Amino acid sequence: MQFIPSEFLAINRKERLYIPFQDLDVRPAFERVCDFDEVLISFDEDRARLEAARCIHCPDPAPCVQACPVHNDIPSAMWLIEEGRYLDAAALYRQTSSMPEICSRVCPHEQLCQGSCVRNKEEEPVLTGMLETFVVDYERATKGVSVPTQPKNGHRVAIVGAGPAGLSCAEQLLQKGYEVTLFDTKPSPGGLLTYGIPNFKLSKEVVFARWEDLERAGAKFVGNTYIGKDKTIDDLFAEGFEAVFVGVGAEIDASMKVEGEDLPGVYKATEYLIRANVDPAILPSELQGKPQIGEKVVVVGGGDTASDCLRSSLRLGAKEVTCVYRRTENEMPGGRKDRKLAREEGAKYMFLTQPVRFIAGEDGRIAAVECVRMELGEPDSSGRRRPIPVEGSNFTIEADTVVLALGYWPDEIVGKTTPGLETHKWGLIVADEATGATTRPGVFAGGDDVTGPNLVVTAVAAGRRAAQGIDEYLRNKQKTQPSLAV
Ligand SMILES: Cc1cc2nc3c(=O)[nH]c(=O)nc-3n(C[C@H](O)[C@H](O)[C@H](O)COP(=O)(O)OP(=O)(O)OC[C@H]3O[C@@H](n4cnc5c(N)ncnc54)[C@H](O)[C@@H]3O)c2cc1C
Questions:
Q1: 156-251+409-484 adopts what CATH topology?
Q2: Are 353 and 327 in contact, with CB atoms under 8 Å apart?
C-alpha cells in the first residue's frame, strides 16, 4: 500500500481523483481466528486524511447522504477530516446519529453510503464507514463523549427493549429533558448489539461505552423484565409513564420443521452466538457455557447471521465449517464483505443445497445432515429465483454440530397484552413511519418489531423519529391538559 504524507492535501476535484485509495486493513486470518477481538484495524491520521480527501464533494443532495438511513452529512465530515478537524467531524455525525461508533462498525456500507459513492463507477468508493469509526473513536479517546441534556421537564417515558431503536429513542428524549427508563428481558442493555452481533464485528466495550454515556445523562435500565409477562404496557402507564416506546425487535429464531431439528448439537443461531460471544456475567444461567461443538460444523442459512455463526465456529476451534444454502451466492442476503472474511478464515460454502433431515449418531447427538440438491426456478414474491428440489439427489454430510441461521420472527406478546395495539398477521406492530405512533394513543414503536429483521441503522433512525413523535404527542397533550407542561 502506498502512503503519502499528510501535507499532500487535495485542492480541486480533479486532483482528488489521483489520491490513492487507502484500503481497509484487517488482522491476518490466521491470527484473528484465534480470538474474538475486532478484525478491522482503524486508520491512523495520515491515512484518514488521505482517504477523506478522495471525496469529490458531489453537489447536493449527495448520493451518500441520501443512502444513509440517518442522513449523516458525509461530504462535510469528509471535508473536516481532510482538514484534520476530527472532533468537529465527530460532532457532525452525532447530530444525525445516536450511535455512530456502532453504525460505523456494523452498517453494510457497500449497500448504503459506500454503495452509492459516485467513485464506485470507476474504482473504489471512499471508505466513509471506516472514517466515521476513526473520528468517533478519536473523540472518545481524546475528549470523551457526553449526551447534551436540558433541565428535566418532569415527564416520564418508558422504553420497552434496550436495543438500538430503544437506545436511540432514549438518547433523543434525554436531550429534550425527559426522564427515561428502559425495560428489557435481558440483564444488560444493547439488544442484539450485546446479545447477537459477535465481538469480532463489534466489541462489547464499544456498546457499553455508549450505554454509559446515556446512563450519565440520566437513563435508567431495568433488566430481567419481560413486558407482557412480568408487567404490561398498561401497568407502565399506571406507574406514571406518560408515553411508551416499544422497540422489542424480532428475535424469535425461525425453525426448519424437519426431522431431527431438536437433536443435541443442533443450535438456533441466537443461542449459539450468545453462548460463543457474551461474557457469562451478563447472561441468564440457562445461556451460560460455550456451545459444545465438535470438529465439523454445518451452518444452515445465507444471511449475515450465517456468516457470524461460521466465523464464531472457527474461533471456537472447529476444523471444518460449511455453510449450506438453498440458492446460489447471487441470491444470498448476507453482505459480501463478511463472506469474504469468512472464506479467508476457512469457511466453505455449499450452494443449491437444502437439509431435509438431521440424523443422530449412536450417542443420540447430531452426526449427519441429509440434504437434497436444488435448482432455481421462476422468481418468487421476494424477487429471487425459487429453489426447487432435484428429485433423487439426496446425499449426507457428516456434522457434529449444526447451527440454524434461518431468520427471525417477532414475539407477539406485547401486541397480545396491549389493548388497542394493532399488529400485522405475523405480530409486527402497525406504526406510522414518520412518528412511530401506533394505534394505541401514547404507545410508539420502531425498529425490527415494525419492519421485521433489518439493520442497526434503520432501528436507530426509527428510534430517533419516534422520540420526535413522542415529544410532539406530549406537547399536544399538554395543550389540552395544561397541568402536563412539557
Ligand atoms: C446475529 C445477528 C447479526 C447481525 N448483524 C448485523 C450487522 O452486522 N449490521 C446491521 O446493521 N445489523 C445486523 N443485525 C440486525 C440488527 O442487529 C437488528 O436489525 C437491530 O438490532 C434491531 O434493533 P431493535 O432495537 O429493533 O431490536 P433488538 O436489537 O432486537 O433489541 C430488542 C430488545 O428488546 C428486548 N425485548 C424483546 N421482547 C421484550 C419484551 N417483551 N419486554 C422487554 N424487552 C423485550 C430484547 O431483549 C432486546 O434487548 C444482526 C442481527 C443478528 C441477529
A1: FAD/NAD(P)-binding domain (3.50.50)
A2: no
Alpha carbons within 13 A on the beta-carbon side of 224: 5
Residue 154 vs residues 176, 181, 309: alpha-carbon distances, Å: 11, 13, 45
> Ligand 1 centre from 385 Cα, in Å?
28
Domain 13-142 top-level CATH class: mainly alpha
CATH number of 255-406: 3.50.50.60
Angle 444-445-448 from CA coordinates, rounded to 5°: 175
The closest alpha carbon to 166, from 410, 467, 468, 374, belongs to 467
Whether 327 and 385 have beta carbons less than 8 Å apart is answered as yes
Residue pLDDT, tens place only, 234-251: 999 999 999 999 999 999
Question: Residue range 122-142: average pLDDT?
Answer: 96
Domains 13-142 and 156-251+409-484 share a fold: no
DSSP per-residue string spanning 227-245: BTTTB-HHHHHHTT-SEEE
Listed by start position, the domains of the chain span 13-142, 156-251+409-484, 255-406
pTM (predicted TM-score): 0.94
Residue 465: other Cβ atoms inside 10 A: 23
List ligand 1's pocket residues with C-beta within 6 A.
106-107, 160-166, 183-186, 191-192, 196-197, 201, 226-228, 247-249, 251, 273, 304-305, 308, 411, 413-414, 447-449, 453-457, 459
Q: Do 453 and 158 touch, CB atoms closer than 8 A?
A: no
Output the nine-digit C-alpha cell for 57: 464533494
Query: Helix, strand, or coil here: 134?
Result: helix
How many angstroms separate the CA atoms of 350 and 373, rounded? 10
